[in-house]
Amino acid sequence: MRTKTATMKTRRTINAYGFMAPALILILVFTIIPIIGSLILMFYDYSVLGTTKFIGIKNFVKAFQDRVFLISIKNSVLFVIVVPIIQILSILLAVLVNRNLPGMNVFRTLFYIPVVTSMVAVSIIWGFIFDSNGVINNFLQNAGIISMPLGFLSSKFGAMPCIMFITVWQGLGYYMMMYLAGLQGIPGELCEAARIDGADSLKVFTRIKLPLLKPYIWFCSLNSVISAVGVFDVVFVLTKGGPNNATMVINYYSYTKAFSDFQFGYAAAIGAVQAIVTTLLSITVFAYGKKGGMTNGD
Amino acid sequence: MVIERIRKRRNPKKLFGDIFAYLLLIFIAVICAGPFIWLLLSSLRVGANIYSLDFKLSDFSLENFTGVISYMNLPMYVGNTVIITVAAIVLDVVFSAMCAYPLAMMDFKGKNIIFGTLVATMIIPAAAGMIVNYLIISKLHLLNTFLGVILPSSVKAFSIILMRQAYLGVPKELVEAARIDGAGELRTWAQIMVPGIMPSISTIIIFDFIGNWNSFLWPIIVLQDPNKYPLATALQYLNGSFSYKFGYVAAGTIISIIPVLIVFMVCQKNYIEAVSGAVKG
User: Fold this and answer.
1) Mean pLDDT over residues B76-89, rounded?
2) Which residue in A167, B175, B192, B208 has a CA-CA distance of 20 to 30 Å to A205?
3) C-alpha distance from B276 to closest chain A C-alpha (Å)
4) Among the residues of chain A, which ranges form H helices?
5) Cα R_g (chain B), whole angstroms
6) What is the largest CA-CA distance in chain A?
7) What is the pLDDT of residue A293?
8) How far off is chain B from A157, nearest CA to CA, in Å?
9) Nearest CA in chain B to A269
10) pLDDT means over runs of 10, chain A (298 residues)
11) Between chains, do B128 and A38 touch, taking CB under 8 Å as contact?
């Protein structure tokens, strides 16, 4: 009897792995091995040409003497300013579209369109708008407000705010939908009761809605931090890190080291630093969230 | 009564609030959708100053669209994109549906380890493994092939976990009945379980469609031959090399956006529920 159950269990296990094999093999080869591989690669001098050799932490020593790398870290950390901006604006936007007004669905859809559009298309559009001969400059010059075109993307001080603006613009709709789902989960009686007790809309928002949104704020901020440190597409399409490294961010720098200079080991080391920066910032969000009671669990 | 009195007193204030809300909504709508509308109008005109906001009806023509279709060989890029997108969706749906089945319905050794590993891979951004992924694709001699573009990002842990959740909702009696009727695991899966999780499958198809249609970086890395580029990548290439042909770039961009917009509009409800459901799950 025991051997029979044992063979049945073995057969079930074989069956189960048969079902899972194709997916697991693909995930192992293209997700797990690459992650472990980059943890090893960062200790090697590995390029397409030349020999591969173990060099310990030399890639990291090199990184911290690399001026452009240090600029890229500074820029990436600076870029994280977009996180609170996106979160505050999208909460306000969610409150706005949560009103029960005719035609609200049309507005929600319009606000969401930038989210589903490819970053290439988005960057091309804003590239035309921000260009030194672009829509904004053309408009301002025709109106006689400025005589010389403003270099938005081509100026050292303008480029980064433009990249940030585009990121905020594309991200708003996504987080708005998140917060809208959160707001719609709040029982209506709760707000109604507070109103009867004499609370105005502002009080209802700060004392009831905002505290109940905390799990959403926490989740969205964490997501937002991870994608802010990893910002890539918009830089790749519009500025290539320029002008004069003004928009050189860590993810784009790692990419250029790997696929323009073919220094794969060095690029992997930069990637590791990016992961560390992301983790540190995530922990900050996490700790802040714990302190402010952003998780409803406890 | 009390509530009614409060409502009455608030009425003029509420009207003012509604008008203000609409003004704000329209203002934000202009910021969000305005750039797309400007691009559409610009792609439809020739001759005029491309950056001027002064649109005249006489300037309108479809010349940019016919131009970009023949000049840039747009149908070829659309074809590439369709091949890559459809193949990636099919791989993800079939393999994830298979993988999620034992995770939901069977008891076997190593189940918790596999489930935990899948969840862990979801947290790590794909960019982290990009370099080694490139080396693997190159070792497998898949550089410059569609397969090299499709395989790495095809099966997603997210899809597996979503479908596992869906399988748990399929009535147990149906599965028991199929087993009693002597159906093997494969038949039970194909004839009972898969039809039972169709809503989740459609959600995954929408996610995968938008994600794959828009992806442009990995194709640049893997493909050396620009004739194999998908649309978004080709657009980036076109923008870099032919930015003086503004009308063409604008028309190409519009063409690349339209399929995603249609899919989003049609499946909106399903899609948004899935996106916002991620927090609760």
Assistant:
1) 94
2) A167
3) 5
4) 2-27, 33-41, 58-63, 67-79, 82-97, 104-116, 119-130, 135-142, 159-184, 188-196, 201-203, 210-212, 214-229, 233-238, 250-259, 264-291
5) 25
6) 93
7) 53
8) 23
9) B128
10) 69 88 93 88 79 82 88 93 94 90 88 90 88 80 78 85 94 91 86 84 85 87 88 89 88 90 88 87 80 50
11) yes
Q: Is B74-280 a domain of CATH 1.10.3720.10?
A: yes
Distance from the first to the final alpha carbon of chain B = 41
Residues of B in contact with A279 (CB under 8 A): none
Query: Which residues lie below 8 Å from residue B176, measured CB to CB, with a gap of 6+?
Result: none
Domain ranges of chain B: 12-61, 74-280
Tokens of A82: 């977009």
Contact A270, A250 (CB under 8 A): yes
| Residue B4: partners with Cβ closer than 8 Å, 6 or more residues away | none
Query: Tokens representing B232?
Result: 């978004």
- Mean pLDDT, chain B, rounded, equals 84
Over residues B74-84, mean pLDDT? 92
Judging contacts by C-beta atoms under 8 Å, the chain A residues touching residue B78 are none
Which residues, listed in sequence order, are joined to residue A47 by a DSSP beta bridge? A263
Residue of A12, A135, A275 with shortest CB distance to B53: A135
Tokens of A98: 């949560």
Full DSSP string of A98-166: TS--TTHHHHHHHHHHHHHS-HHHHHHHHHHHHSTTSHHHHHHHHTTS-SS---TTTSTTTHHHHHHHH
Say how many CB pairs under 8 Å bridge A and B: 239
Say if the Cβ atoms of B22 and A101 lie within 8 Å.
yes
Domain residue spans in chain A? 2-41, 59-291
For the segment(s) A59-291, the CATH number from 3.40.50.300, 1.10.1020.10, 1.10.3720.10, 3.40.20.10 is 1.10.3720.10
Higher-scoring residue by pLDDT: A93, B242:
A93
Q: CA of B70, closest CA in chain A: separation in Å?
A: 20
Q: What local confidence, expressed as pLDDT, does residue A297 receive?
A: 41
Please give the residue of chain B at the shortest CA–CA distance from A176. Answer: B276
- For chain B positions 124-153, those within 8 Å of chain A (CB to CB) are 124-136, 151-153
Closest residue, chain B, to A225 (C-alpha): B125
Chain B nearest-CA distance from A94, in A, is 11
